[in-house]
Structure to design on (707 residues):
């Protein structure tokens, strides 16, 4: 076991993937000498050469489109999109080509692409550098969409994504890149030791309320659970990991125990994953729910400028306010307060 | 293998009117376009470049001091920006990327407004219609299509206004930029494509984007092009004036490749020591865009001690106001994040806004 930041854990995952399978190729802007703008690919081009770690000309549609061709030829491309807001020029290739080729060819063509995307806000960045576009991709059949919240998951899930024969859009919570944690790099060496990337995980056990979070907000949800325990509340936190497919079984099991559900994500509320989870869990657990599921999300506005982002991003207090709501306690939203 | 192109290698045809030593060169075609740019007129271009460099250095310092989140320096590109911007007519409309702070200064953008986006207090620094310049496009190349659309609109409106799109060498790889060139040619749009080839797209040398000089691409799209010494303010002024003249006259698009060099990092978050060859950088330092005008103006006796002091005082004054303006930019109000999402009322968003207001009140914060 080694202590690694989440960014370094991704780097070590890429290094293992390159070493284990010579059909793996990394493609992206500035991933070579610079090591990527977040240094995730630091040293990889030096060690594996420019044919395995390719600095790509500056065009996202070109990068993904070319990766499609490489996949046709049996390679396993891992594409880095520099920032969340720059995935849109590649959107057409991803949703119209990558997602559908397996289906369209009756299973003849595999698209084992991994598309790495640093995403989310909280780093005081300029426009187009703080977006949470996961719902667009989760809405597209044929894509797997995952995100990680710990260095261990970053490492393991990235290797699983690369090994997966389906295309995976791999969202990396950029504001957690510098989070440190223990990483066991041997976890995939024996089958069955690692958890599957499409299984959600209960990270904090509790009995009163379930909070479902993913990516950057898992840490915030855990903080909320700790804060609530000071008030005698017992909160369960579920880290989704996979956004498509959703592991609704794990959420359902949790909600059956707690009877209350809060879902939180940075992305805009309308049409977001919170809506999907709320609807599905209401469907599955209607008689077990003590209150309507509550969502704590970004607002239906573009991501605001850096000095206003704290008002957009769900934080511990907004999550606790929603916890109060599902518990029927005094809260801002319903305006209800005990007499 | 990849780094042979667009280097401004000896033998490449580059329009030049002022060589790196400050010697005035003859040019049969472009001479007449800068006949007026002597004496005080040239001195004012020099002053613009000095002020722009001063603002840029000041902004970099402000970022280092934690006052700005980020800054994209234009160090080394002053002649390309000032020369092209000073060629514009007031009604011409600019579609820039994020690095055109020198162009913005010349368009009359208040220096402190240049900082709003980078300080993070608002999404855009100025009203595009107030200075005929759009706010910076961060998504690479997107603005080139906007320029073509604007230009076509000008034609439809029966005015002879032109649009100018600024972008880098890296941008020329993007589909949008290539589509913009096709469309501009298809519709004979009065647009000038102004590519600042500063040799880098972050860490990637221009050779990764182009195997031949970038200006060679445009003729394939049916657009005449010119390659100019981007560190020569006179030459840039001349070629841009000519391109604009074509556009104003209704002769359609022109592509300009201004060959220059990014002397600093890509942005203040970048680490060029990982990829820049210091010898290449040193070589370009010898072609500094300001030094050559200075040498020329001194030789002509225009840049007297008195004039130099005046320029320095002007730079000091603008820089001091710039710094003070930065720290006085107002913090956005919490609920301002809901402003301007739509032009027409939107009840769903209004509901979110009032819920957030209630929440802020519940935690004792003033919402507005
Ligand atoms: C679509 C898109 N992809 C990636 C980026 C990240 N990025 C910002 S600037 C840049 C390099 C641009 O190089 P160039 O076009 O030569 O312009 P320069 O910055 O050198 O002026 C990159 C890759 C972006 N802003 N937009």
């Amino acid at each position: 076991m080694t202590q690694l930041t989440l960014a370094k854990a991704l780097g070590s995952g890429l290094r293992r993937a390159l070493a284990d399978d010579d059909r793996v190729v990394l493609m992206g802007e500035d991933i070579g000498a610079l090591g990527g703008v977040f240094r995730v690919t630091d040293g990889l081009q030096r060690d594996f050469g420019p044919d395995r770690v390719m600095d790509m000309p500056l065009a996202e549609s070109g990068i993904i489109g070319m990766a499609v061709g490489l996949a046709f030829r049996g390679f396993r491309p891992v594409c880095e999109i520099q920032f969340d807001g720059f995935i849109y020029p590649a959107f057409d290739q991803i949703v119209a080509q990558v997602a559908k080729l397996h289906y369209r060819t009756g299973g003849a063509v595999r698209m084992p692409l991994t598309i790495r995307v640093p995403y989310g806000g909280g780093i005081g960045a300029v426009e187009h550098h703080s977006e949470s576009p996961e719902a667009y991709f989760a809405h597209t059949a044929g894509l797997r969409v995952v995100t990680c919240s710990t260095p261990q998951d970053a490492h393991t899930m990235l290797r699983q994504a690369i090994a997966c024969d389906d295309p995976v859009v791999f969202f990396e919570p950029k504001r957690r890149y510098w989070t440190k944690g223990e990483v066991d790099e041997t976890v995939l060496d024996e089958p069955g030791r690692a958890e599957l990337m499409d299984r959600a995980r209960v990270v904090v056990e509790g009995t009163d309320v379930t909070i479902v979070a993913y990516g950057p907000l898992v840490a915030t949800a855990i903080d909320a659970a700790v804060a609530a325990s000071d008030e005698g509340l017992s909160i369960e936190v579920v880290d989704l990991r996979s956004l498509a497919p959703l592991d609704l079984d794990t959420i359902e099991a949790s909600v059956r125990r707690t009877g209350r559900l809060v879902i939180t994500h940075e992305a805009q509320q309308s049409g977001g994953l919170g809506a999907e989870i709320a609807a599905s869990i209401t469907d599955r657990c209607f008689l077990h729910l003590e209150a309507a599921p509550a969502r704590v999300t970004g607002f239906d506005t573009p991501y605001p400028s850096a000095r206003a982002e704290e008002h957009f991003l769900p934080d511990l207090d907004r999550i606790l306010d929603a916890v109060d709501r599902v518990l029927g306690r005094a809260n801002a939203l319903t305006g209800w307060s005990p007499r | 293998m990849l780094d042979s192109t667009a280097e401004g290698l000896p033998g490449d045809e580059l329009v030049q009117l002022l060589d790196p030593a400050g010697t005035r060169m003859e040019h049969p075609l472009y001479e007449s376009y800068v006949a007026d740019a002597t004496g005080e007129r040239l001195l004012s271009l020099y002053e613009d470049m000095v002020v722009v460099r001063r603002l840029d250095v000041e902004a970099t310092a402000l970022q280092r001091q934690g006052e700005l989140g980020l800054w994209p320096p234009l160090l080394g590109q002053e002649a390309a920006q000032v020369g092209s911007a000073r060629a514009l007519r007031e009604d011409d409309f600019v579609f820039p990327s994020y690095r055109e702070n020198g162009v913005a200064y010349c368009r009359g953008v208040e220096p402190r407004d240049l900082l709003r986006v980078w300080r993070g207090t608002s999404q855009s620094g100025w009203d595009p219609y107030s200075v005929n310049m759009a706010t910076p496009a961060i998504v690479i190349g997107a603005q080139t299509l906007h320029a073509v659309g604007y230009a076509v609109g000008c034609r439809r409106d029966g005015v002879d206004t032109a649009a100018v799109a600024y972008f880098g060498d890296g941008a020329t790889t993007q589909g949008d930029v290539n589509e913009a060139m096709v469309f501009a040619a298809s519709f004979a749009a009065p647009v000038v494509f102004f590519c600042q080839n500063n040799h880098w797209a972050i860490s990637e040398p221009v050779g990764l984007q182009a195997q031949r000089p970038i200006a060679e691409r445009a003729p394939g799209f049916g657009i005449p092009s010119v390659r100019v010494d981007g560190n020569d303010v006179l030459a840039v002024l001349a070629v841009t004036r000519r391109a604009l003249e074509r556009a104003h006259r209704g002769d359609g698009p022109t592509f300009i490749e201004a060959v220059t060099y990014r002397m600093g990092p890509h942005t203040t978050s970048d680490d060029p020591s990982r990829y820049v060859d210091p010898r290449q950088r040193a070589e370009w330092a010898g072609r500094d865009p300001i030094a050559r005008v200075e040498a020329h103006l001194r030789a002509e006796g225009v840049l007297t001690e008195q004039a130099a002091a005046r320029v320095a005082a002007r730079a000091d004054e603008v820089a001091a106001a710039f710094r003070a303006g930065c720290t006085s930019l107002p913090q956005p109000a919490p609920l301002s994040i809901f402003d301007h999402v739509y032009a027409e009322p939107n009840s769903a968003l209004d509901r979110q806004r009032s819920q957030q207001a209630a929440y802020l009140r519940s935690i004792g914060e003033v919402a507005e």
Q: What stands out?
A: Chain A touches chain B at residues 29-30, 32-35, 37, 55, 57-59, 61-62, 85-86, 88-89, 124-129, 269-270, 299-302, 304-309, 311-312, 317-318, 321, 331-333, 335 (CB under 8 Å). The pocket of thiamine diphosphate is lined by residues A 29, 58, 60, 82, 86, 89; B 99, 138-140, 167-171, 198, 200-202, 262, 266 (CB under 6 Å).
